[in-house]
Amino acid sequence: MWSRYLACPKWFANEDIDKIRELMDLAVKRTSDVINIPFEKVRSNIFLPVDGKLRIPNGCHFHMDWPLELNVDITFGTGSAGRAYKNRLINKAIRLGNSWGVSGLPGAQLNKIHPDLQWILSFPIFNPDNGGIIGVMTIDGLTNPPITAAKRETPKIQALIKELEIHARAMAVQLCKLETGGF
Fold it and tell me: Shortest CA distance to 80 belongs to which of 67, 93, 69, 70?
């Protein structure tokens, strides 16, 4: 599986990182515009399976400036990204106090995430050729969540989620045609 090499910077061409970051930038801008929060408070990344865990490949993140977060290892089925990967469904996680509910991470990994992180939308990335799952794209925020457990998603948020699904599909296409290999 090529994802093992994607996490290694010597195998990940700068041109590939630029294309991936461009897609993340567009998703972050759109999310910021729709939910009306500062652009710099919305972030994005991709997680790819490497050695049995989901990891963020070097350079495959946008607005993530908390260094510990870039080394998070997510077990399939845990955390928002792990649940999206295992269940092959969009996962929405909202922090309530110090709890992430069913989308929580074990303590050592939880301690790596940005202390201001409040919400996460995780989108499975499917291989467009065979439908297999190749990773997860997340959009998250360091602000109040656009959705809450008490408040249903508005039509505007539902439309945003549909748009972000399109971004995840575009990410899949990009990952499958990388200069450094692809899936």
Answer: 93
HSE of 181 in the Cβ direction (CA atoms, 13 Å)? 12
pLDDT confidence band for 176 (50 / 70 / 90)? confident
Question: Is pLDDT of 32 > 90?
Answer: yes
Q: Which residues pair with 124 in a beta bridge?
A: 136
Partner residues linked to 61 by β-bridges: 45
In this structure, are residues 90 and 84 in contact, taking their beta carbons and an 8 Å threshold? yes
Residues 6 or more apart whose Cβ sits within 8 Å of residue 78: 104, 105, 106, 109
The residues near 175 (Cβ < 8 Å, ≥ 6 apart) are 6, 20, 46, 125, 134, 135, 182, 183
Q: Which two tokens stand for residue 21?
A: 């970051």
The three-class DSSP label of residue 72 is coil
- Indicate the SS3 state at residue 40: helix
Task: Share the mean pLDDT of the chain.
Answer: 87
Burial of residue 110, with CB atoms counted within 10 A of its CB: 0-12 exposed, 13-18 middle, 19 or more buried: middle
